[in-house]
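protein under study:
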Amino acid sequence: MRYARSIANTAVILAAPVVWFWTNEAARGEVLKLANGGQIEGRLVEDANKDHYIIETSDGRISIAQSQVVNVESTSEDEQQYEALARTSPDTVEAHWKLAGWCRERKLRDEAQQHLTRILQLDPHHAEARALLGFKNKDGTWMTRDEVLAARGLVLYEGRHVAVQHVELFEREKEIKLSQADWADKLDRWRRALVGRREDRAAQALSDIRQVDDPQAAEPLVRLLEREADPELTRLWIETAARIDHPACIEALVRLSLFDDDEEVREQCLDILADSGRRGIVTPYIRELRSKENEIVNRAGTALGRLGTADAIGPLIDALSTKHTIQVGNGNPDQQGYTFSPDGGAFSFGGGPQIVTREIRNPAVLNALVQLAGGTSFDYDQDAWRAWLAAQARLHVVDVRRDE
């Protein structure tokens, strides 16, 4: 509910916040927000004195120094009409209910809520007012929406209701993001120092980098590593990633060991992974045994041989030879091209380059199999390898039974 104000004089207004009552005899046009926290409502009067505001209220005209006013707000026609209605409305449940409806139709939400609140002061059991104010009747007790949700174990957190136990998780996520942002800033600053002209700053940056092992630095470091163009700095970031126990660093090292164009970088990453002894890192290499690129298949085979896990033997057998689409011919469309199948049976005929699918043997995969088999070799004979693997499995079962 908007209230009227009794103003004795200007000095009172400027000395204390505004006091509100239920009646008001002046139709408003503007609201002057005062520096002391109060406000004056009325109609601004044109006046030649630019140092003061002249405002007409129910108590007459008041002059206010502009230095005492922090803001002037105009009121809408609906608000002015509301003031006229409110002045003549009795302080009863029925009158407030009618005014609340009038305000809601005109989207005067604050005014409507004040009338609904006054209704509950007069009649605490007014169900319609309770409902519009968001109360729920739970087991005979009126509760706000927040109270109902709190009874269900939910609390308001940044504009939405969540389980109490989730708040701690969200706060932890905030801390992690702040920490990661701090690490991103540090890493970028250190990198600039490394390539700068100040040798002392470069030496200090290098010393700081070589002490980094915080898991919160992992993701910013990986982003820096992925966009690094300097080979020397790339090796430094890889060394740093090797010290951090975080999945993001392990995944980055695996990707580099498979896909980086620099063989030294691939070897550095693979050495780190092989020495780490971490479980579960063979999965991405096994997946790449099915790569469309034959070179990646062989890189994955080499890695699996280095990692030395028996779980890779079956997938390696399947990848001894793999099918790949390749281009043959010299690329001159004016010349005839002949492409024969590996068994010499079918061929294609036409001008220019030809795209064919061929089955290609993978020597790195075979080398890995021989390593994991302890020197046993059946060359590229997949059937023989599978029979050997099955025999090894049966032998293992017998050994386990004997131990029992």
About this structure: DSSP finds 17 helices and 15 strands in the chain.
